[in-house]
Structures are given as C-alpha cells and as structure tokens.
C-alpha cells in the first residue's frame, strides 16, 4: 500500500499560538488517520514543547526546500507572515486552508479563516476561540465538540503554593510591579506562598517586584526551561497569569489558571482553552472586544485590586465551585469559568451576573455564524432563531436596530451586483456597531474575491440568510 501523503501546517507565530494549535493537530490526526503531520514552526518554541505536543513532525523554516519537494493532502497556514502565505501557495496540495500569496495577490481559503480575518478591529461580539477557529474549516463542529479535555487538578488543601507569571508580550497586558508586590503581601497574609515565574524577558520585572515587596519570595524568572516549568507547575495550587504563552502551556498540562485578562486582549479568543479555568476581566464596556486602547489610558487595569485578587485566589485554591464563586463581590470585574457551549465550542460562563444586551447580541451572532458557516444544519438554524427570539423579547431596540440597517446594506449590495463598483471602506466602518459582524464579514468576502459578480451574489446571500433567521 502506498504511503499516505503528509499534511502540512504552517504555524510561525509565538508559543501561545503554537500551543493553541495542538487541539487542531489532534483533530487532523483523527480526521486523516495514517497521514504524517508536518508542522513548520519556530525551533525556539517547538523544541521545548515536543514532549508535550501531539505526535507530529516539527521542522524549522529552513526546511523550505525539502517541504517544496512533496505533495500534500492538506496545507493549513495559521501564520500571518508573508513568507508562510507564499510557501502555502507554492506547494502542491489537494486542499489549502488559510492565507495564500501568489504573484503578489493575497487570498484566504476557508470561510472560518475568512471570518477570523474579519475580526480585526471588529471582535466586539465574537465568541469563537482561536483554537476552535484553527480547525473548523477542516473538521466538523461535532468533532470539536465531541472532544473531552480533563479539567485542571485541585491540589490538597496543604498545597498552597501560588504561581505568579509576571509579564506578557505587551506591558498593557500585564499588571505593574507595584500590583504584584502588593499581591504577594496579600497572599502571604492568607497563608498562601507566592512564587514568581517568567522567562528571560521578565528577569528585570522580577527584580523590581522583589525590590518593592522588600521581603523573601521565591523567584524563578529566567531560571527555568519550559520542561522544568511544567514539572514545578505540578506543585502549584493555582497559576495567576496574564494572557500569555505560559498560560496556555499551564492549561494544557492541567495546572489551574486564573487569567488576569487586561489590555488589548479578548479572552473569548485567547483565554485558557481547557474547561475549568478562570478568567477575570474588567466589566467596563470598552473591554468587551478590545483590539487597541485608543485613549491609551488602560483604565481596565484599575479594578484589579490586589486584596480582591488575593481573596479570589484563596477561594480558587481551596477548590470552591461556581455557585460559591458567583457570590463573591468583585466590583468592576466579571469572573468567568471556561467551559463548553451546548454545541461543544469554547465558552466563558460568567459567574454572578445576568445576561445583558451585549451578551445577548454576542450569543445571536455566535449562533448565526455557526449556522451559516457550519454547514447550514437544521438544528443550528433552530438555535439561531431561538437566540434571535430571545434578543427580540429582552432587547427589542437592539433587534430593531439590526433590522434597521438591512435596507442600506441591501442597496449597497444590489448596486455592486449591478455595477461591479468597489465599495468604500465605510461600507463596514460606518455601519452600526451591532451589525458589524455581518458587514465586516461581507466586506472581507468581497475583498477576498476581488469584487467579482459571484462575490456580490454571495454577499446578497449572506443578507438573505440573515433575514431568514430574523424575519
């Protein structure tokens, strides 16, 4: 029997992105049994992760000549680098997913990859996690939803060591040294033993935290390799961390995480992926789908008070369940527990607060895109209609506002279909906030297909599919 052709995955992003592609690698192996899976990634990221990763073949970018000599069953490009898009276009494959760059022309293959691209500066209502979006053009939602990940361990009460990962790729995404120093004092006051973690980039930050604390604290910043970190992590009751690569590694290895989600991150997209972790996020409106901070005020940091975080930490380390945690008072903050929706997708369950308009709109758009891009299954259509009905009943003004933009959108699409005229960027930018998930995706679809006649027709079909649910 001839050897099966390999599958090529290009993942040239940072460590966190590589770890978030691990579930997809498992699903590919299940969907394409017997096909070797080759993953092109950065050696400094994949080398220390190989013992923890799915059983695939990692190779560096320098293997390009070797890669080009083979034919593939599938190529998946998860990178934003131009070189990766060029390589994806050049190799021979039966099917290609993700960005391609051929003769200077950029394309994105796969509706879910196109959806992800449409989220740039437009993710306020997005409820799809990167780990799920990596895979949904390749495997079914039922495959994703049918996968069971173990919840993180809860250590016996005597194990009271709390890991603090200090840094992140952007200073806006992590607390200040003064916060960490104050949190150390608060944790010690509750009988908990904090331990500082970080890579070489956090050594200076760790020194400043220790200086401000002015007392003994164990500091591993810059002292542990990743495989050492995973071993030390087995002795931690909780890992408090910004949104960063080591958070995803901790979650992947079963270490319970409390993600302090601050700055220009969106926990629905990049929070801890496995069920049973916790995310703390400012409840302010601008934090609900943040791409950048236009005022550069980082006001979302203010509600993260060390005393509150220490109190929450003590309850999480003790193993308190969602019902007890929902009764905690955390002014200005929303506490979420990671889990799965009824469709099996990543979900953040908000503890202690009721759904508001933003959450209801997000739920609707999640269901609508799940139906439209997920194979148009009848059950998905029923779910989307129910979400629309709930929105109409509880927030009729929001529902009316969505429908109110339909005539304007229809005029622009019909004009384009008749004339082929390229839409101005304001087609998306000037549309009402509530309907931007639809206008953003439609605009990306038109751009991706060069405003062809078929693209305009597909845009009209999107609008018709929206109306099929909402009228």
List the helices and strands and how they pair.
Layout: E1 7-10, H1 15-20, H2 22-31, E2 37-40, H3 43-46, E3 57-59, H4 64-68, E4 71-72, E5 74-77, H5 82-90, E6 92-93, E7 96-102, E8 105-109, H6 111-117, H7 130-133, H8 141-145, E9 161-165, H9 177-189, E10 193-197, H10 203-213, E11 218-219, H11 226-233, E12 238-241, H12 245-252, E13 257-261, H13 267-270, E14 278-282, H14 306-317, H15 322-325, E15 333-340, E16 346-351, H16 357-373, H17 378-394, H18 396-404, H19 406-419, H20 426-429, H21 436-448, H22 453-470
Parallel strand pairs: 1-2, 1-5, 2-3, 4-6, 5-7, 9-10, 9-12, 10-11, 12-13, 13-14
Antiparallel strand pairs: 7-8, 14-15, 15-16
What does this structure look like?
- 43% of the residues lie in helices and 15% in strands.
- It is α/β, with parallel strands linked by helices and 471 residues long.
- An 8-stranded mixed β-sheet has the order 11-10-9-12-13-14-15-16, sandwiched between helices. Strands 3-2-1-5-7-8 form a 6-stranded mixed β-sheet.
- Helix 9 crosses helix 14 and helix 21 runs antiparallel to helix 22.
- The longest helix has 18 residues, at 453-470.
- It is globular, with a radius of gyration of 23 Å.
Identify the notable features of this structure and list them briefly.
alpha/beta, 22 helices, globular, 471 residues
Overview in brief:
The chain is of the alpha/beta class. The chain has 22 helices and 16 strands.
Helix count equals 22
Rg from C-alpha positions?
23 Å
> How confident is the prediction overall: mean pLDDT?
93
The SS-based structural class is alpha/beta
Order of neighbouring strands in the sheet with most strands: 11-10-9-12-13-14-15-16
Task: Name the helicity range.
Answer: 40-55%
The counted number of beta strands is: 16
Assembly state of the chains shown? single chain
- Poorly predicted spans: none
Report the principal-axis shape: globular
Give the biggest beta sheet: 8 strands, mixed
What is the CA–CA distance across the termini?
54 Å
Strand content: 15-25%
């Amino acid at each position: 029997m001839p050897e099966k052709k390999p599958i090529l995955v290009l993942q040239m992003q940072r460590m966190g992105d590589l770890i978030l592609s691990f579930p997809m690698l498992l699903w590919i192996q299940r969907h394409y049994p017997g096909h070797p899976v080759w993953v092109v990634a950065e050696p400094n990221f994949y080398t220390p992760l190989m013992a923890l990763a799915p059983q695939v073949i990692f190779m560096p970018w320098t293997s390009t000549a070797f890669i080009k000599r083979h034919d593939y069953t599938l190529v998946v490009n998860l990178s934003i680098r131009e070189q990766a898009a060029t390589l994806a276009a050049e190799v021979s494959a039966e099917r290609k997913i993700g960005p391609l760059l051929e003769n200077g022309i950029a394309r994105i293959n796969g509706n879910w990859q196109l959806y992800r691209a449409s989220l740039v500066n437009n993710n306020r209502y997005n409820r799809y996690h990167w780990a799920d979006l990596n895979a949904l053009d390749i495997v079914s939602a039922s495959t994703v939803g049918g996968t069971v990940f173990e919840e993180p361990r809860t250590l016996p009460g005597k194990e009271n060591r709390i890991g603090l990962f200090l840094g992140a790729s952007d200073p806006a995404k992590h607390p200040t040294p003064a916060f960490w120093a104050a949190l150390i004092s608060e944790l010690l006051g509750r009988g908990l033993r904090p331990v500082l973690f970080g890579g070489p980039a956090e050594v200076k930050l760790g020194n400043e935290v220790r200086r401000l604390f002015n007392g003994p604290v164990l500091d591993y910043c810059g002292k542990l390799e990743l495989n050492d970190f995973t071993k030390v992590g087995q002795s931690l009751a909780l890992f408090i961390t910004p949104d960063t690569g080591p958070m995803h590694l901790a979650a992947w290895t079963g270490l319970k995480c409390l993600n302090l989600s601050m700055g220009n991150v969106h926990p629905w997209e990049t929070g801890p992926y496995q069920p049973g972790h916790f995310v703390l996020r400012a409840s302010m409106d601008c934090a609900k789908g943040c791409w950048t901070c236009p005022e550069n005020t980082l006001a979302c940091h203010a509600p993260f008070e060390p005393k509150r975080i220490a109190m929450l930490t003590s309850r999480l380390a003790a193993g308190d369940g969602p019902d007890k945690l929902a009764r905690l008072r955390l002014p200005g903050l929303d506490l979420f527990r990671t889990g799965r929706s009824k469709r099996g997708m990543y979900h953040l369950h908000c503890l202690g607060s009721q759904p508001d308009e933003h959450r209801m709109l997000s739920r609707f758009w999640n269901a609508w895109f799940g139906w439209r891009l997920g194979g148009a299954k009848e059950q998905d259509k029923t779910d989307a209609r129910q979400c629309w009905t709930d929105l109409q009943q509880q927030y009729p003004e929001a529902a009316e506002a969505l429908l109110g933009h339909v005539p304007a959108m229809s005029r622009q699409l019909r004009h384009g279909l008749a004339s082929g005229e390229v839409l101005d960027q304001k087609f998306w930018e000037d549309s009402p906030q509530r309907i931007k998930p639809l206008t953003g995706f439609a605009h990306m679809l038109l751009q991706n297909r060069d405003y062809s006649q078929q693209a305009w027709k597909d845009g009209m079909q999107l609008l018709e599919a929206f109306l099929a649910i909402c009228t």
